[in-house]
């Protein structure tokens, strides 16, 4: 479904120098494949380039070099109208549900907006579609009249998810989508995402710094460090199959050496240890 071939991206480092600014590589020869109906987890420390990779797949950033293929088309070679058509097939959920939803809009407007942009439904059909989406994400149809400040963080993320799946996309880029939630709510949202993936035949790119959350939902896990994919493993393999020093470092941060000292940070981690 999605293939990245030798993708490169650099940013100029800040500063007021008159001379050529030094560049930082955030994607360095990235090659990745995501099969239809699966979840590819992308894990790595802060600043390793995960979000930039997600943005390039969403068309929000342009690679300096390389190709991004989606459903047999090179996304970087599409015309504007073809890109728009393709764009509806790839949706996203960001970490910060408070800023990704308009505080002045009731849930109805937030979920309806993509439908209004891309589909010409009658008012009754739109309302029915929004209500069905609310139910699909575990909320009530009546919740459509409520405003963001009337929801909890977990409920807001459910609305962001409803909005992301409103157009029945093929791929959803989930960028730290559960990171701002407390542990139990994270677990519920991960379960919801797994259920929606099955129900709506979705594929996911799940970006997180939390290795256990990534493993709990992904089929494949790619580890990123300084703009490079340093290791890709099946999520079914035991943790010990992760050999790269960066992967070991991520593991060490969640699994202290002595069992008595283990502070289980998520239900996913709990089942793994
Ligand atoms: N628009 C930009 N201009 C310049 N530098 C940028 C820009 N966007 C990101 N960067 C830099 O690129 C690097 C990678 O950022 P990115 O957000 O992709 O990493 P990340 O792995 O998602 O990190 P985090 O988990 O903290 O979000 C960082 O050093 C960041 O400061």
TrEMBL record:
Keywords: ATP-binding, Nucleotide-binding, Transport. GO terms for biological process: transmembrane transport. GO terms for molecular function: ATP binding; ATP hydrolysis activity. This is ABC transporter ATP-binding protein. InterPro entries: AAA+_ATPase, ABC_transp_ATP-bind, ABC_transporter-like_ATP-bd, ABC_transporter-like_CS. Residues 2-251 form the ABC transporter domain. Pfam families: ABC_tran.
């Amino acid at each position: 479904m999605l293939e990245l071939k030798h993708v490169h991206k650099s940013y100029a480092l800040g500063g007021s120098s008159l001379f050529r600014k030094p560049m930082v590589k955030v994607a360095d020869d990235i090659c990745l494949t995501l099969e239809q109906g699966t979840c590819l987890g992308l894990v790595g420390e802060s600043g390793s380039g995960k979000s930039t990779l997600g943005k390039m797949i969403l068309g929000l950033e342009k690679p300096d070099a390389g190709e991004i293929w989606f459903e047999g088309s090179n996304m970087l070679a599409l015309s504007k109208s073809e890109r728009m058509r393709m764009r509806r097939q790839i949706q996203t959920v960001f970490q910060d549900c408070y800023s990704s939803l308009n505080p002045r809009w009731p849930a109805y407007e937030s979920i309806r907006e993509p439908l209004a942009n891309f589909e010409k439904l009658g008012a009754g059909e739109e309302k029915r579609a929004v209500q069905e989406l609310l139910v699909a994400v575990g909320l009530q149809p009546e919740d459509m009249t409520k405003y963001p400040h009337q929801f909890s963080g977990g409920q807001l993320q459910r609305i962001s998810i409803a909005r992301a799946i409103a157009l029945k996309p093929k791929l959803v880029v989930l960028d730290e989508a559960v990171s701002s939630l407390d542990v139990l709510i994270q677990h519920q949202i991960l379960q919801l995402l797994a259920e929606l993936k099955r129900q709506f035949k979705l594929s996911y790119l799940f970006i997180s710094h939390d290795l256990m959350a990534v493993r709990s939902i992904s089929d494949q896990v790619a580890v990123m460090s300084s703009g490079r994919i340093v290791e890709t493993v099946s999520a079914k393999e035991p943790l010990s199959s992760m050999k790269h020093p960066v992967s070991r470092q991520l593991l060490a941060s969640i699994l202290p050496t002595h069992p008595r000292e283990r502070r289980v940070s998520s239900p996913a981690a709990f089942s793994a240890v």
